């Protein structure tokens, strides 16, 4: 038998799901740093255009991933606060008011149910994962390309 999830359960599940963004960030960070170092070292050395493009793509994807990690971490804490509150639905209005005062949310932003918020946050997590996948794919393609040209 399937029961309807309570807003508190949805908020708790969303917070737990968004916590996985920290794992993605820990995997992405070394790739981003390595690409940045490669670009900096490459300033004094003649690098091929393809290598520079690859390093730049890995760096840009890493910077996007870092932004998403910060945003997702913030969202995870907000969902956790909603899950631990007395009435998550009533708390949403106060949360929105606080986010508007901070300039994080615009006043024209329509009120959304917790399910919609969790779904949007999940999309951000998927984007974060996609940024990591792009980084890894570029590194693997560059490695394969370099191996093909060495032999």
Summed up:
The chain is mainly α and 151 residues long. 81% of the residues lie in helices and 0% in strands. The protein is elongated.
The percent range for helix content is: over 70%
String of helices and strands: HHHHH
Low-confidence segments, given as residue ranges, are: none
Span between termini: 60 Å
Helix- and strand-based class?
mainly alpha
Number of strands: 0
Largest sheet: none
Global Rg: 20 Å
Percentage of residues in strands: under 5%
How many distinct folded domains?
1
Shape: elongated
Mean pLDDT: 90
The number of helical elements comes to 5
Please give a structural write-up.
The longest helix is centred in the last third of the chain and has 37 residues, at about 115-150. The protein is mainly α and about 150 residues long. The chain starts with 6 loop residues before the first helix and ends with a helix. The mean pLDDT is about 90. Helix content is about 80%, strand content about 0%. The chain has one domain. The protein has helices at about 5-20, 20-40, 50-85, 90-100, 115-150. It has five helices and no strands.
Structure characteristics:
mainly alpha; elongated; 5 helices; 151 residues
Layout of strands and helices, then pairs:
Blueprint: H1 7-18, H2 21-42, H3 49-84, H4 88-102, H5 114-150
Helix pairs in contact: 1-3, 1-5, 2-3, 2-5, 3-4, 3-5
